[in-house]
Amino acid sequence: MSVEIGHFALVLALLVSLAQMVVPAWGAHVGDERLMAVGRSAAIGTFVLVLIAFVMLADAYVRSDFSVLNVWANSHSAKPLIYRLSGVWGNHEGSMVLWVLILTLFGAAVALFGGYLPSTLKARVLAVQASISFAFLIFILLTSNPFERLVPAPLEGRGLNPILQDPALAFHPPFLYAGYVGFSMAFSFAIAALIEGRIDAAWARWVRPWTLAAWMCLTLGIAMGSWWAYYELGWGGWWFWDPVENASFMPWLAGTALLHSAVVMEKREALKVWTILLAILTFSLSLMGTFLVRSGVLSSVHAFAVDPKRGIFILAIMTIFTGGGLALFAARATELKQGGLFSPISREGALVLNNVLLATAAGTVLIGTLYPLALEAVTGDKISVGPPYFNLTFGPLMVPLLLALPFGSFLGWKRGDLRAAAERLLTAAGIALVVAVLAFAFMSPGPWAAPLGLALGIWVLAGAISEVLFRARFGQAGLPEVARRLSNLPRSAWGTTIAHAGVGLMVIGIVATSAWQSERIVAMKPGEKTLIAGYMLEFRGIESGRGPNYSEDRGRFIVTRDGRRTTELYPAKRLYDAPRQPTTEAGIHVALWGDLYVVLGDAQKDGAFAVRLYFNPLVRFIWIGAVLMFIGGALSLSDRRLRVGAPRKSRKPMVVPAE
Amino acid sequence: MTRKQRRLAFILSGLLVIGVAVGLVLFALSGSITYFKTPSDLADNPVPAGQRFRLGGLVAEGSVKRGESLDVEFRVTDTIGTVPVVYRGVLPDLFREGQGVVAEGRLDEQGRFRADSVLAKHDETYMPPEVAKALEAKGVKLGHGARHPGTTSEQASQ
């Protein structure tokens, strides 16, 4: 019965979102406050209804109600509770419900906390937001109904693909979706502003917290996915330039650009047209990501197999919103008034460079991802575009971006002094150079560019630290004064520094692990020893064991370094009960300077086992960097000045358009 | 600088970045795309030895032979043509005879495909989409019609 309640709630949500789409927009048009106020209650109503649907579906999973087709196809009663829950979004239908749940949550958040917004803008934002929920609710109800019944009910479910039964992956989709969907706020604000025909610095200040929150979630979501792929897929890689990964990475690049251009717009009222365009494009890329992943048009190492009808439906949604948004943009953008002037060498100029490079990088990733599809459609040739393409195009575009990054934060608004900035960055440049020279000297076997890449990471990291130290007058004032100034820095300043330091650390990790990874594949018999990156591994044989819903053959390796015992590793081959599927569990010794990574392969004829060994230097820095970006974003978000709704002194009164 | 000159400077530098990017894209695309072929495609249009491509099909029944140390030999077939494949390394968990597979590598002088990575199918109902499509185009019936739950594929490479 509960499942029918869920289904009914979803249908009701569709109707309420229709009301939320039409009534406030009409109210804003005719200037009727009461009609506009409908948006608020409708947004909250839609959210509550979708929440009911989601809870009912989750409940069916927790109770293992196999009379529901979706639960039967994706769950099993022997699964631990957390994976029964994460199974809700471990499949197409359930993940779309989660998508809409997060979408309506954002809508409800605007309704609840958006009291500071001019009422017409708020009404229009809610209406645009509702149009997106409406489209996706129709999509779910017509093509992907998770509440379909199965008669007669089977006794046992088919189970969730075991490699998805994993803590990092349990939380990867919610964060990823919060990111994707969060960019819908930027889109709704952009469309609403275009309809109003008026955009100012206040607009950027309203949009920025939402964009920042979405960006943080997307950053963490992508990092979790990468971390999961690293330890679960068992080939020691953390990023594969796979189409599904690119699908989430493109909105991230565009969103990062948006975050920075919104700063320029807020502070200087410049780049208005560009920021609006970027807001539309970022969400369009999110929609395209959803399309690419959900339609199954891509051959991917993470491919979710799905039915083409759904693909066409999402493609239609994407076309309507992207096309509609861009058409409105084309019609209205010329009416937007130009903002403040600035010289090329200035904070604004640096942020423009950031935007040009990030947007171009997103473009190259887009081409690499879509080219195989286009070519197949035109010539019928099936090709794949591999990592070399992305390394060749994306990599070079990041070099000027990272070189310029530390300068950006030292340049003043409007007109910057490049020379003064360079002087302040002298220490950072010195450290980076020394590291490059040391890396050339001591890490000789490796690509020639690696020491330079490492130096680039250090440069960004040291540049970020220099900035706070400079702000605290380090080296000029006494230590107590420096400490006082540091503690008085606004949180947004700390946020910027920490996020940029995270970028630096991530670059260091990426360069080190790509350039100096050691890899060996050996056949080992019990009792044999092998050496990698200074670690001695002794294979002690295989033992069989049982987990909650799998049986496994576990290898035992004793790891020593310089004669001292470091740890024991247990790489395993598991066979899950339902579905009966083998998986490989890597044995990983985690350390900050590098991971030792052991994978157990097949048994050989002579009683030996194939064993794959990796040493991945500094690979942890990649995820630590991502977490720092998240923390930086969170600090920025918690800054008083940026907090949603916080009034700001010394600003001209808000312009409330009346029609 | 006047407003116009400034704008021109911005536009020109933007175009410069985009121009460089386009150059990189074209250069990279010409060098790093790999074609997907099935064994009968190879019979129709031979690929010269040494050129990289992806070979897809089914692992022929009874063809998997494990050699010394970590060498593996098997045949990939689309039921019309067959190509012998040699691979050294750890195969993916779901590599099995009679199942779909995509291998990436080059042909050697003896006409054997030397794979440096092998991508296998992922669960009982999933088949790499290119393989499924290519086999379907050749009129080969695949023995699966069940619903496809969300699945993830996996890869072995060295």
Briefly summarize what is shown.
Chain A is of the alpha+beta class.
Instruction: Write out the CATH superfamily name of the largest domain in chain B.
Output: Nucleic acid-binding proteins
Outline of chain A: globular
User: Hey, roughly how much beta strand do the residues of chain A contain?
Assistant: 5-15%
Largest sheet of chain A: 6 strands, antiparallel
Number of domains of chain B: 2
Quaternary state of the chains: heterodimer
One letter per element, helices H and strands E, the order of chain B comes to HEHEEEEEEHE
Specify the structural class of chain B: alpha+beta
- Level of helix content of chain B? 25-40%
Helix content of chain A: 55-70%
Our measurement of the CA-to-CA distance between the termini of chain B, rounded to an integer number of angstroms, reads: 56 Å
CATH class of the largest domain in chain B equals Mainly Beta
Structural features, described:
By secondary structure, chain A is α+β, with helices and mostly antiparallel strands. Chain A folds into 4 domains: 1-165, no CATH class; 201-330 and 343-412, no CATH class; 413-517 and 620-626, no CATH class; 518-617. Chain A contains 19 helices and 11 strands. Chain A starts with a helix and ends in a 21-residue tail after the last helix. Chain B is an alpha+beta fold and 158 residues long. Mean pLDDT of chain B is 77; it is low at 143-158. At the A-B interface, helix 12, strand 1, helix 13, strand 2 and strand 8 of A face helix 1, strand 1, helix 3 and strand 8 of B. Strand 1 (383-385) of chain A pairs antiparallel with strand 1 (33-37) of chain B.
